[in-house]
Specification:
By secondary structure, the chain is α/β, with parallel strands linked by helices. Helix content is 46%, strand content 11%. The strands form 3 sheets. The protein has a 6-stranded mixed β-sheet. It has a 5-stranded mixed β-sheet with strand order 1-4-3-2-5.
């Protein structure tokens, strides 16, 4: 926070006030009678009267309005020396003064010296004035600022970041891998810059564009590029910033945001993670969240209400379009829905070219090879991949990023950090047989992906890993490909069983068996690849809201459920028996590969296939 005397006063005021009252209560003197401390001894009031009768008292000084007396007395009990003695007098003692006068004793009264008057004045006048002044500054600050501690009275104000000329440092040339989405937004930018091209034929500017896609695909980056290219006022806000604990604040912020936008039209409003405020209304048990629904209702009204929002383009991003309210998705609000998907090979190659601009890459490194090795990677994943490779390069004190660091970075992102190498033991040999079993089945099945690498170096929770090169197109998978994957997943367990015996199989195949069961169940219930028939018995997308699925039951009868279980078991048993045949018929090759793997700890795919070719024929991959 920037220093100012106003901030210093606001933060130090409570400390000053509390410290003053503590000091006044503990240290301010009740009386300033310093003479009270000169008496060395005390005497009771009765004994004092006896001293007067015996003529021993020579002088009496009264203090504290006659409640305390300091006497000067002399007598045999006092060693015949004058001594000063303190006496506490009763509240009412009218006979005392008369008695002192009759005895001719010197009497003097000392009034209280009130030294606390100045402190009372300070406490009663100065501090209240200081408090009132500070509160005035606080309220004035809350009205003039939009951030910091002075925001206490501005709950209903929009928290959107406003930029007249959004200099985000990102333009369309910095966005790669999502060419279709870029074309949509290049058209919108042209509409904002030169609207006459479109209005001449009766076209109207779109009211809203919804970016839909998995996390990390570049939705927010694309919005920054739009801001950088359009050169129009740009408002950016997150959907969660509309939601507050106070009812009505979210709706007020929406009104304030669109009010500011209309004053600066034409302009762009970007709402990131709109699913935080745009979820379906009436969800959950007993209804939904009133505050969120009020905010959504206000957003719907502002986007396409009676007044309209001429000249304002609303761009929103989400990765959960399935939970958005249907009223938000209709034409007139979000006129366009742009899918920002995981990039293909060309898209990954373009993204890698963008992210290698400011990195020192070895000229021998082929970006196309990296792009082929990373199917399924999003733009954020590829950026992270190159950053991890750069970190590894700096750690090894190298000047350029080589393919070795990139390979290590890919392994680290997919499987986790590298662990300590296993020592030679029965456990290491068992893991080696398990991984070679996976790789052997994947190599000898024509419908299975090629082996990329087999390693005994632990990563994450895995003690060993077998990598396969996934195909580029994962959207359509044949029945034979699914069965090949089931057999590949069973290869590790089958090899353990054949080599070490039924009693020595381990828990290492736990994750493999989960994948096997899942793939077999999807074949039966979703893809119609069983004897039950071409029926889709289960839906992939479950309802994300608790209240909307509690009364739902299975969409099939108990008889069909029994058939489903039987078909799953039949598919797995068929794949299991075929896997056993392949492993048994290639036992010699497996033993040879295990010895090599234990010695080298890692075998790449080409070397693995070369060794297998010496013993048997490898089918050509589909």
């Amino acid at each position: 926070m920037k220093f100012s005397w106003k901030n210093l006063l606001l933060w130090s005021l409570p400390i000053i006030v509390i410290s003053f009252f503590i000091w006044q209560g503990l240290f301010a003197p009740v009386t300033n009678s310093n003479n009270n401390n000169i008496a060395n001894s005390r005497m009771t009031y009765g004994r004092f009267l006896e001293y007067i009768d015996m003529g021993w008292v020579k002088k009496v000084d009264l203090y504290e309005n006659g409640h305390t007396a300091i006497i000067e007395a002399v007598g045999p009990e006092l060693g015949n020396r004058i001594q000063k003695i303190r006496v506490e007098l009763p509240i009412t003692a009218p006979e005392l003064i008369t008695k002192l006068k009759n005895q001719g004793i010197d009497l003097d009264a000392h009034p209280i010296k009130n030294n606390t008057a100045i402190w009372n004045l300070i406490g009663n006048l100065f501090f209240p004035l200081l408090l009132i002044t500070s509160l005035t500054l606080l309220f004035r600050r809350s009205n003039n600022t939009t951030s910091g501690p002075g925001q206490a009275m501005s709950f209903g104000k929009s928290k959107a970041l406003f930029q007249v000329e959004a200099k985000t440092g990102v333009i369309f040339d910095d966005v790669a891998g999502i060419d279709e989405a870029k074309e949509e937004f290049e058209e919108i930018v042209t509409f904002l810059k030169k609207p006459e091209y479109f209005t001449a034929v009766g076209a109207k500017i779109p009211k809203g564009v919804l970016l839909i896609g998995p996390p990390g695909t570049g939705k927010t980056l694309l919005a920054k590029a739009i801001a950088g290219e359009a050169n129009v006022p740009f408002f950016s806000i997150s959907g969660s910033e509309f939601v507050e604990m106070f009812v009505g604040v979210g709706a007020s912020r929406v009104r304030d945001l669109f009010k500011k936008a209309k004053e600066n039209a034409p302009c762009i409003i970007f709402i990131d993670e709109i699913d935080a405020v745009g979820r379906q209304r009436g969800t959950g048990i007993g209804g939904g969240n009133d505050e969120r629904e009020q905010t959504l209702n206000q957003l719907l009204t502002e986007m396409d209400g009676f007044e309209g929002n001429t000249g304002i383009i609303v761009i929103a991003a989400t990765n959960r379009a399935d939970i958005l309210d249907s009223a938000l998705l209709r034409p007139g609000r979000f006129d366009r829905q742009v899918n920002v998907d995981i990039p293909d090979f060309k898209g990954r190659l373009a993204i890698l070219n963008v992210h290698t601009r400011n990195k020192k890459i070895d000229p021998k490194v082929s970006l196309s090879i990296i792009a082929r090795r990373t199917p399924g990677f999003s733009g954020a994943d590829l950026a992270n991949l190159l950053n991890e490779a750069a970190i590894l390069t700096a750690r090894e004190r190298k000047n350029q990023i080589t393919l070795k660091e990139i390979d290590q970075a890919i392994d680290r992102i997919i499987a986790g950090m590298e662990g300590t190498a296993l020592i030679d033991s029965k456990s290491k040999r068992l893991i080696a047989y398990h991984e070679v079993g996976h790789a052997m089945i994947g190599t000898l099945l024509k419908n299975h992906e090629n082996v990329q690498k087999v390693t005994l170096i632990p990563r994450g929770q895995a003690k060993g890993l077998t990598w396969f090169t996934p195909s580029e197109d994962q959207s359509l998978i044949s029945r034979s490909q699914i069965k090949a994957r089931i057999m590949g997943a069973l290869g590790g367990r089958v090899t353990e069983q054949i080599v070490f015996g039924e009693s020595e199989i381990t828990t290492g195949a736990g994750n493999d068996l989960q994948q096997v069961t899942s793939m077999a169940r999807q074949m039966v219930t979703r893809f119609g690849m069983s004897n039950i028939g071409p029926l889709s018995l289960e839906n992939e997308d479950s309802n994300p809201f608790l209240g909307r699925g509690m009364g739902n039951t299975n969409e099939y009868s108990d008889e069909i459920a029994i058939k489903i279980d039987q078909q799953i078991q039949d598919i797995v048993e068929e794949c299991y028996h075929n896997t056993v045949k392949i492993i048994k018929s290639n036992r010699i090759i497996i033993d040879k590969l295990v010895d090599i793997l234990i010695e080298k700890e890692t075998i790449d795919g080409e070397e693995f296939r070369t060794i297998v070719k010496h013993y048997t024929e490898i089918p050509e991959k589909v």
